[in-house]
Write a structure and sequence with these properties.
This protein is of the alpha+beta class. Helices cover 18% and strands 43% of the residues. The protein contains 3 helices and 14 strands. Strands 1, 9, 10, 11, 12, 13 and 14 form a 7-stranded antiparallel β-sheet that branches. Strands 4-3-6-7 form a 4-stranded antiparallel β-sheet, with no helix packed on it.
Length: 213
């Protein structure tokens, strides 16, 4: 995706999507599965599993199992993520009500020493880059100003090449906008600005809140 503001796009998506997201409980598709470590086969409790772009998600139990029910038919993108492991996504197409089961195997993430150092350094330059990221990511409209990034310290930034600005996050970004009444969990895969163009990729899950005027 490309554009000059990410969050305005998501704000509009939320307003259009919420009615259909609420209606998902009437569907007849059920997704069950087990999440395990790829090398040991051990279950991975507290793994997050959700349907991207929806309000449907769950946390894996102590036995490694998960259950997502009441989904409508159609195309679904299942996203599985756990701290310390590489995320996995599956694109699924359901033409009729059904129940499916998956075993999802997660591979541990290899963290380089320089990545840890960068994450620990939050000097004045880091805060300047954070302000730049928020302008690009959230925007500057009145409503965007009421959208709060709750965990900015998961972000790292890179401006190594001429005209390039990149952002990465070691955990999901958590954003809240009480004006519109939602909380957004955004798993940022890629964020890059070159000149006046912004390119991003990620998976999002919505949670409905009580709106505030």
């Amino acid at each position: 995706m490309t554009g000059q503001r990410l969050l305005p796009f998501l704000l509009g998506l939320t307003l259009l999507a919420v009615p259909s997201l609420r209606a998902q409980s009437t569907g007849g598709v059920t997704i069950t599965g087990t999440v395990v470590d790829d090398s040991t086969g051990a279950p991975l409790p507290r793994t997050h599993v959700f349907v991207s772009g929806s309000m449907t998600g769950t946390t894996v139990g102590e036995d490694g199992r998960f259950h997502l029910g009441g989904l409508p038919t159609g195309s679904k993108r299942l996203y599985v993520t756990r701290l310390g492991y590489e995320p996995v996504q599956k694109t699924l197409l359901f033409r009729s009500d059904t129940t499916v089961h998956f075993t999802v195997r997660l591979t541990p993430t290899v963290i380089e020493a320089d990545e840890v150092t960068v994450a620990a350094e939050r000097d004045d330059e880091w805060y300047e880059r954070l302000s730049r990221f928020k302008r690009l990511f959230i925007g500057e409209s009145d409503r965007a100003q009421r959208c709060y990034l709750l965990n900015p310290k998961v972000l790292q930034f890179d401006t190594a090449w001429w005209g390039r600005f990149e952002a990465a996050a070691d955990r999901a970004l958590r954003l809240e906008n009480r004006a519109l009444g939602y909380r957004l969990t955004y798993h940022l895969k890629e964020f890059e600005q070159r000149s006046d163009m912004v390119r991003w990729d990620g998976e999002q899950m919505f949670e409905e809140l009580t709106p505030r005027d």
